Amino acid sequence: MNELTDRLEIEDLKESLHEVQTLLHRHERVGDDDDALTLPAEDLAALRARIEHLHPADIAYVLEALPLDERLIVWDLVKADRDGEILLEVSDAVRESLIASMDPQELVAAAETLEADEIADLAPDLPEGVIEEVVRALPLEERANLRAAMSFEEGSVGALMDFDMVTVREDVTLEAVTRLLRRMDELPDHTDQLFVVDRKQILRGSLPLGRLIVSDLDLLVSAVMVPEGVQLHPADHAEDASRAFERYDLVSAPVVDEDDRLIGRLTVDTVLDYIRESSSDSQLAEAGLREEEDIFAPVIASFKNRWGWLAVNLITAFVASRVIGLFEGSIERLVALAALMPIVAGIGGNSGNQTITMIVRALALDQIDRSYWRKLLSKEIGVALLNGVIWGGLLGGIASWLYRSIALGGVLALAMVLNLVLAAFMGVAIPWLRARFGRDPAVGSSVLITACTDSGGFFIFLGLATVFLL
Fold first, then answer.
1. What is the largest CA-CA distance in the chain?
2. What are phi and psi of 184, to 5 degrees?
3. CA 418, CA 461: separation in Å to the nearest integer?
4. Which end of the chain has fewer CB atoms surrounding its CB within 10 Å, N or C?
5. Is residue 161 part of a domain?
6. Pair (89, 235) in one structural domain
């Protein structure tokens, strides 16, 4: 049932995007400026009506799927009181384009609709003058919360926690707690438990809402509450917190300082957002991209994002070409080498990427102790040898049959084994070395492993062929 509901929601979202695009594509160009668009009043009204019924996250999805000129038309139709929520939902690259189109007063108004922890998420992309004005406009408590949230390092629990939570004392009755909840307009999002504190805000435990509902209202909170099993600290890494949420199926968790005073909470929606962003960043880094990119970004912006690792790839490709150049005479004398050498390099690259993906993931989960690297290397080389013997033998047999040369097939099989071993070694060594020197193991890993297996594969295969066949 849940899968069906999710599928219907995705289809509805795609239909909404299609309707928005259809309305936008009925525009007329004005003047000589190809980027200037105008829409008839009835189309603007239809667009506004369609957008008003969408959730902020769905509007963010629509904005990310539109070129800049069409994106700004839709953005201008969004109600001002929703600007802040939508800016939080869109990708960093798209957020920059939206903020660039807003004047300082609009940005201040958008930020003032958000909670302190949400403003802190938005702060790095806002002009300094806007942040100062927002801080001055906040109540003292919210101002202190904002400064606290902005003081924590990116990727820490403190930078992700929110300050909106419900606390109760352990010496009050459950009836008093229910009266407190009824006086509230609404509970903070993802409230599955109330936090029990003393007069100094020291965390004593938690009161799950399920227990509150089924327990006798005459009982004291102390009789029903449970000791808090998972406590986070603001300096904890968000990766560790996300693993705790996954392991213990948490909806929320308290954040306490060094004196066990409750200062905030972390919720599952924030953790899921962090996991999604981390996964996206890791995929981009493996491909050599510096950051997430607006698919409709200007050419020069995309160039700046991509050129670094492309330059590295150019150098490695040149090295591979020179390796081939060393054996031009061998290739001229035995043309079959030119047809077979991409197979050796390609299989090695694929195997190396499999190894490096497993290692980077294990490093991200903090599963590899320093003493385990040798065992890990031995295991990966063993897998490479087994794959090399099986698939190298198979491809060697096929090559022997195609080219009527058992020696050529044997050289191909041996080259496959050796290149797969090289791929396994480099698949472990590259992330290990980057982690050892404090670098992100994922960054450019795909580029580096492909460079090693291409150059190495060509050298091994052509070298063996030169020695044994010519």
1. 95
2. -80, 145
3. 9
4. N
5. no
6. no
Helices (H), 365-392: 373-387
CA separation (Å) from 6 to 15, 58, 275, 392?
A: 14, 14, 20, 45
Alpha helices per DSSP H over 287-335? 299-326, 328-333
Examine the fold and report which residue of 286, 320, 349 is the final residue of a domain before the chain moves on.
286
Helix (H) or strand (E) holding 157: helix 157-160
Q: How much is the average pLDDT of 120-128?
A: 87
Helix (H), strand (E), coil (C) string for 222-257: HHHCECCCCCECCCCEHHHHHHHHHHHCCCEEEEEC
Query: Which residue in 129, 51, 115 sits closest to 84, CA to CA?
Result: 115
The answer to whether 66 touches 74, Cβ cutoff 8 Å, is yes
Q: What is the CATH number of the domain that holds 60?
A: 1.25.60.10
Helix, coil or strand: residue 162: strand
- In angstroms, the CA 204 to CA 226 distance is 9
- Cβ neighbours, 10 Å, residue 330: 18
Domain end point (choices 129, 155, 181): 155
Q: Over pLDDT 70: what percentage of the chain? A: 91
- Look up the CATH number of the domain holding residue 351: 1.10.357.20
- DSSP structure class, residue 35: T
What is the DSSP annotation of 394-443?
A: HHHHHHHHHHT-HHHHHHHHHHHHHHHHHHHHHHHHHHHHHHHTT--TTT
Torsion angle in degrees (nearest 10) through CA of 126, 301, 274, 357: -160
Mean pLDDT, to the nearest integer, of 40-61? 86
| Most confident of the ranges 29-38, 348-357, 359-368 | 348-357
Q: Are residues 112 and 38 in the same domain?
A: yes
Please give the C-alpha separations between residue 170 and each of 130, 178, 196, in angstroms, as whole numbers: 42, 14, 6
Length of the chain: 470
